[in-house]
Amino acid sequence: MEALKGVRILDMTHVQAGPTCSQLLAWMGADVIKFEPPQGDATRGQLRDVPGADSLYFTMLNCNKRSITVNMKTAEGKEVFVDLLRKCDIMMENFGPGVLERLGFTWEKIHEINPRIVVGSIKGFGSSGPYADFKAYENVAQAMGGAMSTTGIPDGAPFVTGAQIGDSGTGLHLAIGLLAALHQATRTGQGQYVEVAMMDGVMNLCRVKFRDHQRLTRGELAEYSVPTYQGMGDVPRAGNDSGGGQLGNAIHCKPHGPNDWIYVVVQEAVWEALAKRIGPEVHHPDLATDPDLAKIADRRRHQAKMWGLLGQFASKYTKREFMAILNEIDVPCGPIMSTSDLADDEHVRGRDMWVELDHPQRGKWFNVGMPIKLSASPARIERSPLLGEHTEDVLKNVLGYDEARITAMKTAGAFSAPPKKAA
Ligand SMILES: CC(C)(COP(=O)(O)OP(=O)(O)OC[C@H]1O[C@@H](n2cnc3c(N)ncnc32)[C@H](O)[C@@H]1OP(=O)(O)O)[C@@H](O)C(=O)NCCC(=O)NCCS
After folding, report:
1. Where are the domains of the chain?
2. Mean pLDDT, contiguous 10-residue spans, the chain (423 residues)
3. Annotation marks residue 89 as catalytic
4. Ligand 1 atom closest to Cα of 134?
5. Burial of 100 (0-12, 13-18, 19+ CB in 10 A)
6. What Cα–Cα distance (Å) separates residue 150 from each residue in 154, 158, 223, 242?
7. Which of 79, 114, 215, 320 is deepest in the core (most CB within 10 A)?
């Protein structure tokens, strides 16, 4: 049985942060009803690759959901919303600040309508504090949560990371909060308000950088390859440094293309074996006994020398060949995988992490699979819904509306966009 079978979610989320959360919950078996404005989630039409078809931006974040379109700016639309609130266990949204309140639905009002319902809300900066009124997107959260100031090289611009830690990262945080609140509501009969701010989520993911921030008050950060000193204040950008107790870095391999790199962690336990393996090929047969690199503290001090020797060795091998050499002597490492490396990777396919789907508008396409594997409840991945594909289904089968009521509501504009005003 699916783990969340029987849990119904009223999903008002849009763009990425919210939908990434509701898609995971749908993959765990929740009945997710995506409640869209009549024009649909804006991402349906963003970055389109197939004319007239829902974009991959949308399809990759909205699998296993039903779609209902409702115009919340009509009295009848609000009626549908209220009826759905009564039938759902969770309601979730990631509108801009104040949107739901302007529609007339504060947390208190929703709680009054259905005391059991758990409400999940993502905002850029939460509902309190000087930033509460601001909208946010992924990179705004990366900028304000500490990720950008600590990513890149000291003399260059700060960088965003490709992993969507502001959006998808926040969605993950929300999923944890929703499941905890749902568990509690099951025992107490009382729902609660679960709020996750994107800035807070990014700070949580940058926790180790705030560890280093405090260590700087007591001394240098010896493991950093860039200069640090007591009282430095800000944690510097440190390129590809490992940022942990073990030294690590990215090493360029043959034929030296943009993704011909491998990340190598020189774990204390493997140094001797590594030095013995690479030393003879870099004209350094006694590398394992070189006092400059004997212990981790020595290697921290002489990092440039160590990475240089590894680079020299790697210049004769591809990243896969180097990986095989390192795997043999148990050195933790990972070739930098490009998107095509991953799409073609046997391991990835074998773990259902690159899943082929069909879609009535776009034909075959791929989604990244479900990263959380439940032994008794494996995810079954189904395509995203077309806009409003399940409106009638939900009105009839979830809310029990009859044909006459649906027709009257349709006529009143409950499911359509208001006509454009004449110029
Ligand atoms: C992402 C974001 C910047 C987009 O801003 P936006 O496009 O202006 O959208 P908003 O959420 O602010 O507003 C949505 C509007 O659609 C309206 N709307 C939404 N659903 C509706 C429905 N079913 N029927 C009628 N109107 C609807 C809202 O009432 C609102 O209108 P208003 O401005 O008149 O109040 C903003 O939603 C945001 O900051 N969200 C929180 C952080 C977040 O999740 N960021 C995105 C990460 S991917």
Report:
1. 8-204+346-411, 247-331
2. 97 98 98 98 97 98 98 97 98 96 97 98 97 97 98 96 98 98 98 98 98 97 93 96 92 97 96 98 97 95 96 98 98 98 97 98 98 97 98 98 97 88 62
3. no
4. 39
5. buried
6. 9, 7, 15, 12
7. 114
- 41, 167, 212, 241: the catalytic one is 167
Pocket-testing residue among 62, 135, 137, ligand 1, by greatest number of atoms within 8 A of Cβ:
135
Backbone angles phi and psi of 342, in degrees to 5: -70, -40
- Cα 67 to ligand 1 centroid, rounded to whole Å: 17
**pTM score of the predicted model:** 0.96
Between the two ends of the chain, the Cα-to-Cα distance in Å is: 55
Angle at 8 between CA 7 and CA 9, to 5 degrees: 120
**Distance between CA 3 and CA 384 in Å, rounded?**
20
The dihedral built from the CA positions of residue 308, 338, 347 and 20, taken in this order, carries a sign that is positive
What is the CA(164)–ligand 1 centre distance, in A?
A: 20
Pocket of ligand 1 (CB under 6 A): 15-17, 37, 70-73, 94-96, 99, 102-103, 122-124, 135-137, 167, 198
Same fold, 8-204+346-411 and 247-331: no
Looking at CATH, the fold of the domain delimited by 8-204+346-411 is given as: Rossmann fold (3.40.50)
Nearest residue (by CA) to ligand 1, atom 23, is: 37
Alpha carbons within 13 angstroms on the beta-carbon side of residue 201 total 32
Please name the residue that has the structure tokens 């119904």: 8
If we measure between CA atoms, which residue out of 346, 292, 339, 338 comes closest to residue 319? 338
